[in-house]
Amino acid sequence: MKHLIALAIKFAMITIVLLVVLTWAFDVSLLHTLLISLALTALSYATGDMLIFLNAGKPENQYGRNTIATVSDLFMAVAIIWLVGWLLTGELAAMAVPALICAVVLSAGEWFFHQYVDHTVVPWYNDYKSAKN
Q1: Are 81 and 91 within 8 A, CB to CB?
Q2: Any domain includes 132
Q3: Which mean pLDDT values do the consecutive 10-residue runs of the chain (133 residues) have?
Q4: Has residue 130 been placed in a domain?
């Protein structure tokens, strides 16, 4: 259940950023924005949050793991938004700037999301006491 809540939070964060940047600022359709949000949520949660963040260093080095995971999320977000956006819209060059803007804004949110994951979703990883224990 904790993973579903985390996925919902991540999807909401990504969707809001992509709606503002892609749909409102760059006229990407709402359907395409939602599809990009879904793809980015699934791929970045599985790789960035569950694989890279949890394995990028010692459990007690949360700052180092968070830095590595946030930087990898930045590059992953640019690649996914650009690639999926290009596949959906047919506009390769036109998706470059919006992908970069979205990725930078999302990286700021990812820094805090990783802390949420560390303390709430996988508190056992650092031997944190869960809020509901």
Answers
A1: no
A2: no
A3: 95 98 95 97 94 87 92 97 95 95 97 92 70 50
A4: no
**How does DSSP assign 33-57, residue by residue?**
HHHHHHHHHHHIIIIIIIIIHHHSS
Residue-wise DSSP of 79-105:
HHHHHHHHHHHS-TGGGHHHHHHHHHH
Residue from 24, 32, 47 nearest 82 by CA? 32
- Identity of the residue numbered 104: V
Q: At what angle do helices 62-89 and 30-43 cross, to 10 degrees?
A: 140
- Looking at this protein, which amino acid is placed at residue 80? I
**Cα gap 112→98, rounded to integer Å:** 22
Domain limits at 23? 2-125
Q: How far apart are CA 131 and CA 121, in angstroms?
A: 11
The tally of domains found in the chain comes to 1
List all residues 6 or more positions away from 89 whose beta carbon is below 8 Å from its beta carbon.
Answer: 28, 29, 32, 95
> Whose structure tokens read 């999301």?
113
Per-residue pLDDT at 59: 82
